[in-house]
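A student in our group prepared the protein record below, which I am reviewing. What it holds is a sequence and that sequence's fold in token form. My question to you is simply how this chain folds and whether the tokens agree. Do not assume that whoever made the record got everything right. I have pasted the whole thing underneath without changing anything:
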Amino acid sequence: MKPLKSALFFAGILILVQGFYFLMPQQGMDLFSLHLRNPMPEAKWQKRLAEHPALPDTVATHTVYADTLKRDTVAVRAPANRLSFTDSLKRKTPRLAMGDTARTALYRLFGMLDSVRTGKNHLHILYYGDSQIEGDRITSVVRDSLQNRFGGGGPGLFLPVMTVPFTATLRIEPSGAWSRVSVFRKQTGKTHFPVGVFGEISVLTPPKDSAKTGYCRVISQLFASDKAATFNHAGIWYYPLGGKVRVSVLAGGEKIGEKTDNGVKKLVYQQFTLGKRYKKLDIEFSAGKVFGVEGLLLEDSVGVGVDNIPLRGRPLMPFTKCDHYI
């Protein structure tokens, strides 16, 4: 080893020992099965404490004289005047400034939440964000808190084809010729689809040699909250191009319900009451023409639903490009 490297090595050892010398508690510390003793003499340790004495508690005594209704002496102990690092941060943090318009909007939200709790109604909250919420890691906390207080369940709204097919709450397993169409991709030809709340739509192209077009399997994650992991209601928004679409809902291989539209060229909403709570569901589609799925919804029939709407790389997404038919 070269002299310079040797000197740096020994200097590092000395700095490490010096750190232990000043930072180790007076009574020493346990490291695994070893007890390390503080090398500083007790007299020097006491001198260090004397240089930084703790602030004493202050006691204020108030005497109530005999000419009042109460004839006693009351001692009031004031709290110690000690500030932690957290307290100092709180004092430096500015208050959140909120305009009158935003405050009014929140008052409406609080009123609707009260109506959910007292009237057994249902309320949807759409949580928009960028890639930070793709894994549902922020939205799931909000959802869990609101559902525990106001009721509700299920993961909320999602698409068969998402940027991330698995989150902290659910896992999505689509099967079939799915594709994504968003407001940032120009649509051409006769297969023009409007897009709504997600700013995109999942398009399913039926195969020529099969009666079943495709399906989407949804599985609640093992570590999802109890309320968000189960649901008793399912909803499907889809947009056919004039052809009939048959939607079937299955659980454990057993068909729970099936619905068919009239071959209209507009947004169709089909809903299913599941009868009991599920953690895993298959949604199967059969159609003769290309169609688009606007959203899948798994929730409780009453309570609060919080829908996670992630928009990767689109912090300034122009909502004006989303269609207003919903």
